[in-house]
């Protein structure tokens, strides 16, 4: 099955973590980068397209600032990234030049992907680079990222890029063999799981935190990335990026690492963007009847089913949709602001214009802009 899935893949997102890119001194491992470049060049020779999501800028720059371990503050991280990003790209450029491949740098923040126009512009740029045979290398823009806009880790970013580029496979290169049923660093009985058909609560409970001084993501974030990619209908392959020839073996169908299958029911690109890229700005609470018709019958959210509004948001913002128990079960893009919804909630759609003096439509959230989460 693995060989059949991977044989069809033509566009791949390869996420390379800090723990893979750095050596024992926490500097960039140029030899390993050349090995990965050789393998990616072979993939391109097979007619496949590769987009790289790379960590490593902060690790490459923090030693210049005399920072030991992870930077403790956002400004320290930004300063280290400002120094390290150029060093990281130069290392990639040198590694791929040996195989006559060009690379391009793309730095993103959450705002770039949350705004639909900027999302589409980023997609167009990447499509153009790929059409020209250039390998896009994407990283979070750590030099300007703050808590409100940072992705938080490049595992998350790689899942969003999978949707952005409409890739067919996400490969996560980490520093262990794959996903285990327990932490292999602390448990001698930990067992590698070669295939995960569905990311259940039990699977999530087996994940631990980050044990690295140079990376921000642990197994939890990698599982979350695989889950997000799976919702877009894309499988994820997690392998040890430090193993010689690992990409060659993985893409040949060898049973290395862990393969996470795509979800049986996937989202469209737009609904995936709503569910996983947009940052909700408020909540609307609905009655049980509205929760039933939304979650089971795929209907639009009407004002009559809303019982409370929380937070401040405008028309076009993303909000959480919660049931009477306060638990989120959906999210979507609203056609009315929080003030307008507060005025018309509990009323029939036919009364909207009478209450507000105008109306944009009958729905608070149209079913095309609503995702059950």
What is the secondary structure topology, with strand pairs?
Elements: H1 2-7, E1 11-16, H2 18-21, H3 30-45, E2 49-54, H4 57-62, H5 74-97, E3 103-108, H6 110-114, H7 116-131, E4 135-140, H8 154-165, E5 169-174, E6 195-196, H9 201-205, H10 219-231, E7 236-240, H11 246-251, E8 258-260, H12 269-276, E9 283-286, H13 288-297, E10 306-310, E11 318-322, E12 328-333, H14 338-344, H15 352-356, E13 370-372
Helix pairs in contact: 3-5, 8-10
DSSP strand tally: 13
Using the 3D structure, state the CATH architecture of the largest domain.
Answer: 3-Layer(aba) Sandwich
Instruction: Summarize the helix and strand pattern as letters.
Output: HEHHEHHEHHEHEEHHEHEHEHEEEHHE
Q: What top-tier CATH class of the largest domain fits best? A: Alpha Beta
Which topology of the largest domain does CATH recognise?
Carbamate kinase
User: How big a fraction of the residues is strand?
Assistant: 15-25%
Q: Name the CATH superfamily assignment of the largest domain.
A: Acetylglutamate kinase-like
Q: Helical region count?
A: 15
Distance between the termini: 29 Å
Helix share of residues? Answer: 25-40%
> Quick one: overall form?
globular
Radius of gyration: 22 Å
Overall structural domain count? 2
Sheet/helix structural class: alpha/beta
Query: Strands of the biggest beta sheet: in what spatial order?
Result: 3-4-2-1-5-7-8-6
